[in-house]
Write a structure and sequence with these properties.
about 400 residues; alpha+beta; Protein Transport Mog1p, Chain A; 8-stranded antiparallel beta sheet; 3-stranded antiparallel beta sheet; 13 strands; transmembrane; Pra-immunoreactive; cell membrane
Length: about 400
């Protein structure tokens, strides 16, 4: 501290010493702030890294919310095959890219800060250091859609522009004439707006955490929850794992497969009209056994047909093997039905076989998966026990 000059009081020489020209720019005694003058005093990285960190935080929150909604829509589509539930997951993906800018727009309009900007202590303002308002915030965030698109390398170019600009503006800021300043260089928000901001930010965080927890719970429950699929005639059903889906375009009674592996099940049917004569279940099994190998280019496995019981109904079971496109197929065929209709169930898995590997060895190697297929076929039963043999 400089020595006190003779004839001057302590207050004159210390407490009321003149402020610097820069301080006058930042904190004018009256009138609006000069946001551009303030932002020019920042070094290149100080605001950039805060803005980058804020984007990361905000995107995480928005993604948590959409993850929860997406997981819920997936769970709904598994349990309900209506058109809406089928397309809902895809609509949500599209909505993410539309609604995400709305999050930024509303929060920056009313508070100048999103949750991320609040956490990193920066605020969006106009040239006078005031809140940008609904119009400027809208322009700023409409440009965000362009700046964060693949052609702009998902915001990388926007970040480079902020780094090299003296005004530290991205394209959206230039178009809207807005600036991002450190909160310490701005007057605090009025009390009512500050309270509203805190409540809104806390609400966003709570909703995001709730959606994340709900989404994880929904996904984890779906992993272990099976669902029933019906035959086209609505008379029989089969229970399959959550990841399996039915092929609506098939001409068979039912065709289901797993999107995560090479499991497949197809159900076909015949009645007296298609058979052109009345036959017994045993005779029908012989018809299928003689016809199917040529139809799917496979060969019967060693061993005779096994007569068994499927949910209290008589059934016949035999095996076939084949090769296609360099892969080996192991088939298990089950024939069952009732007095009105017969069904044949083709369950198979397809995978790369080893050089010189026999069909028997292939089945031994995949015995666990084949057993899983058998357990799925074992769930084939009349809906509500409505038919019997």
């Amino acid at each position: 501290m400089e020595p006190i000059q003779p004839g001057k009081s302590t207050y004159e020489s210390v407490a009321f010493s003149p402020v610097s020209e820069l301080e006058n720019d930042r904190y004018p005694s009256s009138g609006p702030l000069d946001a551009e003058a303030i932002v020019r005093t920042y070094d290149s990285g100080s605001v950039f890294f805060r803005r980058w960190g804020a984007v990361v935080i905000d995107n995480l929150l928005v993604m948590m919310i959409f993850f929860g909604l997406f997981a819920w829509s997936i769970a709904a589509s598994v349990n309900d095959d209506s058109v809406w539930n089928t397309i809902a997951p895809f609509l949500l993906v599209g909505c993410y890219f539309i609604l995400s800018p709305i999050y930024y727009w509303l929060l920056e309009t009313f508070f100048g800060t999103t949750v991320g900007k609040w956490a990193l202590r920066v605020r969006v303002v106009n040239a006078s250091g005031e809140l940008p308002g609904i119009g400027k915030a809208a322009i700023r965030n409409l440009m965000r859609i362009l700046e964060f698109c693949p052609l702009m390398f998902y915001g990388i170019i926007a970040g480079i522009i902020v780094l090299i600009q003296q005004k530290k503006q991205r394209l959206g800021d230039m178009a809207a004439k807005t600036f991002v300043l450190k909160a310490r260089d701005l007057p605090p928000l009025e009390r009512s707006r500050l309270v509203g901001m805190r409540i809104t930010h806390i609400l966003v965080i709570v909703v995001a955490l709730g959606c994340l927890i709900g989404g994880i719970s929904s996904v984890s429950s779906q992993i272990t929850v099976d669902h029933a699929v019906e035959t086209a005639d609505g008379r029989y059903e089969m229970t399959v794992p959550w990841s399996w889906s039915a092929d609506a375009s098939t001409e068979s009674e039912l065709a289901v497969s797993s999107g995560l592996s090479t499991y497949n099940v197809v159900v076909g049917s015949d009645n007296e009209e298609t058979l052109e004569e009345k036959v017994s279940l045993e005779d029908y099994h012989e018809i299928i056994r003689n016809w199917l190998p040529g139809a799917i280019h496979a060969e019967l496995a060693d061993g005779e047909t096994e007569q068994t019981s499927l949910n209290g109904r008589t059934a016949y079971r035999f095996e076939m093997n084949g090769e296609e496109d360099g892969e080996t197929q192991a088939y298990t065929i089950t024939v069952t039905g009732d007095e009105d209709k017969f069904y044949y169930i083709i369950a198979w898995l397809s995978d790369d076989g080893k050089a010189g590997e026999s069909y028997h060895s292939f089945r031994e190697r995949y015995s666990g998966k084949l057993n899983k297929l058998e357990r799925i076929v074992a769930t084939f039963k009349p809906i509500n026990g409505g038919v019997s043999i």
